């Protein structure tokens, strides 16, 4: 007579848990295919245009690089130590010439086939959806909860910036266009007060000023019923700076890929919430009483490089405001040599988390400061503490760059454009806590 193995019941239990659930697999696959088809329908046209322009833009860029090298051999431009040897207006002229070359080449290029467009769009959509779903699933698991509040772009605040776009630099559609396309799909997908099933374990819920994700449909419905009973209290509070952050989010996620390439996604140490906290501390320092907030410190990043970064941020803020107002203004090519300068600074400065974070924080700080105008900003009532040497450096560099941007004589008009695009008057920023 054999004695029963005491581990046998536990093994049977584990086998039952690990046994493939055919119904759940089919449901997940069916939902995924539905989301992919719907999303592809939305991005097919811009993907086709991007494929048509992709080769032409690369050739135009190579031609400009060759021309620049040839000119540098024959013409020596006067320069002072520490200043770029570019005559006034030369960068704008280079961008315009490159755009004209690309446009000319595009008209002569062969159109991509429908099969190529469909395959390219499908692969891009699968990547973006996989990134987004994965961020949501990991956030639920990491927090060990069944229901999680998301930010205004249906992303977990704990997510690493840019992670939702990881891998999209390999596609013809520019990262900025991909970020906008994902946002447009999210808003078309989830209507206010409706639970949308993304997968058997992901259920998206959109309220007026908030997104949530739940691990089950029942939890999502329970949250919806609860929100309906306290609707006024739940929707009365909104950060005053949120409209600006929302306008800038696609640029904040995508632009570092243009500036830094794949290095922009190399294991950032800060989350979306961390960067927002540092940006708000910088805003309060720039527009508030310096004695009331955290002191800046000397940084190893050169004043000239921060000036170039401020110039790039102002260009991007202008394009973002026009884009929000309905005027098509795609991202221009980054300033010449800025990428190399940022990458060099990344490797030279100890404790700097990454220059992609610096760009995002300077973009947010400058955008909110411009929207506030001359309004004195009081504490928003959120944690403004800085944690560690790296955050101290980011904060100080961001304050320096934002101040240089604000010193530009054209910023008053830009501030008016941002306020018009976001619908918040400058007087509304005196106290940043809620709308």
Describe the structure.
This protein is 60% helix and 4% strand. Residues 75-90 and 232-237 have low confidence and may be disordered. It has 435 residues and is mainly alpha-helical. The longest helix is centred in the first third of the chain and has 53 residues, at 22-74. Helix 5 packs antiparallel against helix 8 and helix 12 crosses helix 14. Strands 1-4-3-2 form a 4-stranded antiparallel sheet, with helices on both faces. It is built from 14 helices and 4 strands.
Task: Tell me the Rg in angstroms.
Answer: 24 Å
How confident overall, as mean pLDDT?
Answer: 77
Tally of helical segments: 14
Strand content: under 5%
Helical proportion?
A: 55-70%
Give me the count of strands: 4
Order of helix and strand elements from N to C terminus: HHHHEHEEEHHHHHHHHH
Shape: globular
Write a compact overview of the structure shown.
By secondary structure, this protein is mainly alpha-helical.
Descriptive labels:
14 helices; single chain; mainly alpha; 4-stranded antiparallel beta sheet
Outline the fold blueprint:
Layout: H1 8-18, H2 22-74, H3 90-108, H4 114-143, E1 147-150, H5 175-189, E2 195-199, E3 202-206, E4 211-214, H6 217-229, H7 231-235, H8 242-260, H9 272-287, H10 303-324, H11 338-348, H12 355-372, H13 388-406, H14 411-422
Antiparallel strand pairs: 1-4, 2-3, 3-4
Helix pairs in contact: 2-3, 2-4, 2-5, 5-8, 8-12, 9-12, 9-13, 10-12, 10-13, 10-14, 12-13, 12-14
